[in-house]
Design brief:
With about 160 residues, this protein is mostly helical. It has four helices and no strands. The chain has one domain.
């Protein structure tokens, strides 16, 4: 198929351009859903963090909330990975479609950003956003260890040394 020309009324070219517009719209919607999911998980983790920090006394509830936070962070990381895979596939299709268009909007933009290789030019959002769930996860593990140590450390040490 010849590259799509502005005045070319070929039905196949018109169909290609309509499909291209739909593909771009779908990719934008996926990005918006990913942003919404990130906001939801960030808010949930922030609420958990505030609860943990504002409690005066340590209790078993901190352990359960920490476990819940770990599960939440794991789910968040999985969702980010799924959105990343989905978007990568969608943009691969868009770039393929652009080969038949006179101007490669996404392809040219990606080249200008040096295909994501130069961190000074462009830091992939997924690289940045992937770190957040792991930061929360490490925090929750630390909280669980700290609470168990604070609440049960003496009991655990007594058990270990009385068994010898």
């Amino acid at each position: 198929m010849d590259k799509l020309k502005p005045n070319n009324q070929n039905p196949q070219n018109t169909l290609l351009f309509e499909q291209y517009k739909i593909a771009v719209e779908m990719a934008d919607r996926i990005s918006a859903r990913r942003e919404g999911a990130n906001k939801l998980f960030l808010s949930a983790n922030s609420i958990i963090l505030v609860f943990i920090v504002t409690r005066q006394e340590l209790s078993n509830i901190h352990i359960f909330i920490g476990i819940f936070g770990i599960v939440l962070s794991y789910i968040w990381a999985s969702i980010i990975q799924n959105y990343r895979s989905l978007n990568s596939a969608k943009y691969a299709v868009i770039l393929e479609m652009e080969e038949k268009l006179p101007w490669k909007v996404y392809g040219d933009e990606w080249k200008k950003l040096k295909e994501g290789g130069d961190k000074k030019v462009y830091a992939k959002l997924t690289v940045v956003e992937k770190k957040l769930p792991h930061i929360f996860l490490v925090f929750y593990v630390f909280i669980i260890i700290w609470v168990i140590g604070s609440l049960y450390g003496k009991i655990i040490l007594d058990f270990i040394f009385s068994s010898s």
